[in-house]
Amino acid sequence: MTAEAAQDDVLVSVEGVVKYFPIKQGIVFKKEVARVHAVDGVDLKVRRGETLGIVGESGCGKSTLARCVTGLYPVTAGRITYDGEDITGFSRSRMKAFRRDVQMIFQDPYGSLNPRRRVGSIIGDPFAIHNIADGADRKKRVQELMELVGLNPEHYNRFPAEFSGGQRQRIGVARALALKPKLIVCDEPVSALDVSIQAQVINLLKDLQDELGLTYVFIAHDLSVVRHVSDRIAVMYLGKVAELADAPALYEQPRHPYSAALLSAASIADPDEAERAERIILIGDVPSPIDPPSGCRFHPRCPKAQERCVAEEPALVVRDGDAADHLTACHFPVEPGDDLTRAHAGISQESTAPALPEATT
After folding, report:
1. pTM
2. Is the pLDDT of residue 21 over 50?
């Protein structure tokens, strides 16, 4: 593939994106005293028609990154390009037009729907906001969307409370599809659903992608779900991408120690294989995003950490022996045969937590 063709294949490009949230103190005159480094220099490309999975622990910045991509959060620094246009400097009117092409499915099917409004009104909101259809035409379009996602069009006038959790998430999917978007960001869309319902919603999203030519950014913490739906997977840790690879390559041979630890914690359906599997236990807690560690942010918990990891931040690049699209941010990536289950962090760290008072008798 030529460079021009590869560039045309990219729908969204995230370049050096930073998102900090200020922490302020004071009653009358509030002063910024620190910042939460939610996303801190992320580079990603989302290709047309693919599903890019983003995984990581809670607080790693994956949902914040998704909200930056959709324009819900302004970026602190960096650039986000959609279909060749830099959206970070869009005016309000241009952002409204951009949001017709980019929609979001939220995690909570209960909290994302207004309980006081009927389903037909909720799904029809995009048509009203963008002045596309009204009256009988809007009702017809809403009922077509309901049928498309597996809901009964006759339930147009019901309230969200009259639907199950899986049906409510289908309502959210229908609302996201209303304006025929090119990109849909799925922010943990099945984590609040029962396992049997999760499969139905995932299969629905896959069928819609094949039928409508959609592009997905799929955020989840369930590694088995991400493996099933994703073409490529980005692993995030403390605001940065630790590893980015095709899904089969990442699951067969993770190169970043954090990716290996995540995969070792994934559930395994085969009981015999699950009994043989050994889990990589990481020491310590995730460092505070207010004051992240120097160098590699994973080094305080990494079983392969060395002095270089403390002083030098690793670049997200192709490591020796990996495919051209397998990127790893690690000075000492995991090699075949490495046993991390019995290793301990190589760099000692002093706790930054406040000392507890000594017990008295």
Report:
1. 0.88
2. yes
